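Weekly puzzle thread! Below is a chain. First person to post its structure in token form gets bragging rights.
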Amino acid sequence: MRFAVVTDTSGNLLNRQVKDRGLAVIPFLYTYDGVEHTCLDTDRFDGDAYYKMLRTMTVTTSQINPQTYADYFTEHLKEGRDVLYVSMSSGISGSCQSAALGAELALEAYPERKIEIVDTRGASLGEGLVALRAADLRDREMDVTAAAEELRAMSERLFNVFTVDDLLFLRRGGRLSNLLAVVGTVLHIKPILKGDPDGRIIAFGKVRGRKRSVETLAEQYEKLVVSPETQTIGIAHAACRKDAEYLESLIRAKRPPKSILLVDYEPVTGAHVGPGALALFFESAPGVRAAAAL
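Winning reply:
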């Protein structure tokens, strides 16, 4: 019997993909002006307006509790399906651990079923591309445990590389050292960041100027991508569509992939990377997260 593929809004997938691929999506929460919001309807999300607001207003995010995860998982267990949950990186969020606790709660009532938690060690399309692959494996009638192992291996190969326009947001969330943030701000240096083997955000290079930072992402792709003709790669941007389209054009000119998914950064992850963030996601060789260097 096919398992259910569950992910969350951090995966940054479009409405049509969620619907067409039969995915279940748990909404993450973000708050501003004292009001809690979710963003399940990506078609209606106005990224330009949101990131303009983010320059003058603080947005906070909150973690989903284990019982909420248990409730979502139970919806599928009670229908006789196992569950494969594709999670945001445990290196930047406690959501994966919360989901694991929720799975334990849900399985108390359905001990004959299985729940597999896949820590993608990524966010945005670094999670979403894994969820789409999970749907492929489900449709091939793969066993949920075997599918989870294949997805964990994919996550190790999936390179998450990005740049930001303003280091304030990463510094505020404690995801980079204050020293690096100060240097970047004063000298107009743009960091080149990646997800490390544990899914944490680290800076592994820096360049001068915005255009050069975009070109550096394309150069990383050209150097590291494996079998691009078989891949859907991802580009996420936070209100910098022209830069995203420039990056897309560089990629298509160098080593064109099978397809490119270009999306607005969803609001929860976007609140931590800030306006002007631009990210690229593609599959490389095993060990790329540790080995990649400028």
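Puzzle host: Confirmed. Bonus trivia for everyone else. The two ends are 45 Å apart (CA to CA).
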